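User: I'm designing a mutation panel for Transport permease protein and want to avoid disrupting the core. Could you give me a predicted structure to guide residue selection? Please restate the sequence first so the numbering is unambiguous.

Assistant: Good idea. Sequence first, for numbering, then the predicted structure tokens:
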Amino acid sequence: MGRALKELWGYRDLLWLLTLRDLKVRYRNSVLGIAWSWMNPLLMMTVFTLVFTVMNRGPASLPHFHAFVLIGILAWNAFAVSVQGAAESVTANAPLVRKVYFPREVLPLAVVLSNAINFLISLPIYFAIAWISGIRPTPWLLLLPITLMAHLMFTAGVSLAVAALNVFYRDTAHILQVLLLAWFFLTPIFYPISVLPRHAVILGLSVDVWLWTRRLNPMASIIASYHDLLYYGIYTAPEFLLRTWVTAALTLALGYALFRRLSPRFAEEV
């Protein structure tokens, strides 16, 4: 593993070039350019705000609901778009994979990094909207890099795994679309994680839905942490932050190990 990481580090310039290529291709011949990365979350923010605070003719369950939704959508999009793009990153570069030697993991990782950059570029939009809405940053904002790193590690781990699987099972990319849609609604993006019941009867068993959502859905903990730091202005409980970090690190290690194990066969499969 250490040798593979050393080799990957040696190709860091290639990784950066592919990341820049992904960003340039995405916004080539676009009038608004990178501003399009803001349009989708802003549109979804508007729709969710209308649905949950206007059309239901009831008061908003959260003050400044639009800001709450926006940070969740930005974080989710960074994850979901990365995973979907990474799934086809190897197969889309088949000629390169067959003819040139380089660590294949740079292909999905370039997709992840380009979306991470998009996410960072989009954060000022959130801060501007939050400030206008009366939400002020607190000193707990200094913990944001910890959540960002957990977010990046988990996204990279899942992306590496699906990129490898899609080379051998081309249905992976299609299955992902369905799974990500279900995952979206199971993640506290447009509702606070605190509304999940602590005791619910499922199949005759008493289940702490709140606790098991945080344990089994890393994106739930990651987005809840963004809500804590950027919306509520409080710190995330250390035990959940630590568990999220451990889960993200394990996901990255397992995803990378799977990718390295299967990558020698990529050239003959693409």
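For picking mutation sites, this is relevant: Residues 2-190+218-269 form one domain. The longest strand covers residues 200-202.
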